[in-house]
Amino acid sequence: MLKILITHDGSECSEKALEDLRKAGMPPQAEAVVLTVADTFLNEKSLNASDYAALSIGNYSMEEAVNEAQGLVREAKTIAKKAAQTLKKYFPSWTVHEESVSNFPVSAIIDKIQSWRPDLVVMGSHGRSAAGRLLFGSVSERILSHVHCNLRIFRNRRKEKYSEAPLRVLVAFDGSEESEIAFETALRRDWPKGTAIRLLTVMDTRLSLAFIFPTAPIRYWMRDKDKDPASWIKRMLADQKKRIKQKGFIAYAETIQGDPKRVLLKEAEEWGADCIFLGTRGLSHKGRMIAGSVSTALATHAQCSVEVVHRLWESASCCDKAR
After folding, report:
1. CA-CA distance, 297 to 125, in Å (whole number)?
2. How far apart are alpha carbons 296 and 150 in whole angstroms?
3. For 108, left (φ over 0), alpha (ψ -120 to 50), or beta?
4. Pairing between strand 150-154 and 30-38?
5. What is the pLDDT of residue 323?
6. What are phi and psi of 6, to 5 degrees?
7. Sign of dihedral through CA atoms 288, 292, 293, 298?
8. Of the candidate ranges 77-81, 240-244, 278-282, 313-317, the one whose mean pLDDT is the lowest
9. What are residue 34's DSSP bridge partners?
10. In angstroms, rounded to a whole number, what is the distance separating the alpha carbons of residues 67 and 84?
11. Per residue, what are the HEC states of 246-294?
12. Counting beta carbons within 10 angstroms of the beta carbon of residue 12, is it exposed (0 to 12), middle (13 to 18) or buried (19 or more)?
């Protein structure tokens, strides 16, 4: 059963991220945890205001700080409960849990990921203002940098002219094992009839050089008679396009020259994509290259949701130690 961790801070973006899951090809059965973090240095065990009545820092009493923290904790519990109820309405067959903790958001989310090991983490691209104190503004970028599990970041809805069209899923595909995993993840989702899946290979210098120094995935598609990279890419996309059609979806596959970040952002916006799927790493003439700049650019600037797909739970720790 799919395990999904949903971070929720009560902001409009978080609410829309919940609604966006209805368009994410989610399975009928799943286990989900809604996590809300009260951004306070005091934990629940230390929240006894009377214990701090005589303490103060300048004109600011510790009793006031504790009272404020207590309010944040109560608010977090209320937000988590409401979000869990909403999620249960969207997915009646899911098992849904609610959790609220007192901690710094990034630390709390990473701790939960390490202990529960979800298959997918869902969060909004931004959250409440600093005045609201349940802050998720830059948290999504930090989680993207430190967490090695699948991450779905909700961003603004696509253009209104596409609002009634079938779902459109764009997959960044360069033949690397990581992009194949991203494609397989998108292909296995429970999409409604009429969903369009578009494979897009961006031809840049790195991909051209990969033809000269092929890795195992590329060698699978290459033939001795090939004269240039376009030959194996065309063969690769044609084969994967057939697989999309066999699943009953509308299939597109193409190659565009340019910078991956710019091309993917431009094509996703113009095509009206609902979501972009991509792996965390791609190809280079040296074999593997961290493509963090691409995933960060898309998660930050795309006008649709972005799913960054990792290899799940390898022998390495799921999260970096940096917080």
Report:
1. 12
2. 14
3. alpha
4. unpaired
5. 37
6. -115, 115
7. positive
8. 313-317
9. 6, 98
10. 26
11. HCCCEEEEEEEECCHHHHHHHHHHHHCCCEEEEECEEEECCEEEECHHH
12. exposed
- Residues constituting the chain: 323
Q: What is the pLDDT of residues 239-252, one digit of tens each?
A: 999 999 999 999 99
Query: Considering only 114-118, 155-159, 194-198, which range has the smallest mean pLDDT?
Result: 155-159
- Share the mean pLDDT of the chain: 79
Which tokens hold the place of 288?
């593997």
The two structure tokens encoding residue 251 = 């299939």
239 and 175 Cβ atoms separated by less than 8 Å: no
* Most confident segment among 173-182, 246-255, 305-314: 246-255
Asked if residue 170 lies in contact with residue 200, where contact means CB atoms within 8 angstroms, the answer is yes
Three-state DSSP at 170 gives: strand
Chain centroid to Cα 218, Å, comes to 27
Distance CA 274, CA 293 (A): 21
With beta carbons less than 8 A apart as the criterion, state whether 121 and 97 touch: no
Question: Taking the mean position of all CA atoms in its chain, how far away is CA 177?
Answer: 19
Q: For residues 199 and 171, is the Cβ–Cβ distance under 8 A?
A: yes
The whole-number pLDDT of residue 124 equals 86
Which range has highest mean pLDDT (193-207, 260-274, 296-310)? 260-274
Alpha-carbon distance of 252 to 214, in angstroms, equals: 25
* Overall average pLDDT of the 28-47 stretch: 81
The residue written with tokens 């369009």 in the block is 196
Query: Environment class of residue 270 by beta-carbon count within 10 Å: exposed (0-12), middle (13-18) or buried (19+)?
Result: exposed
- Among 211, 198, 182, which residue's Cα sits nearest to residue 256? 198
Phi-psi region of 157 (alpha: psi -120 to 50; beta: other; left: phi over 0): beta
pLDDT digits (tens, 9 = 90+) for 39-73: 876 655 555 545 554 444 555 566 676 777 778 88
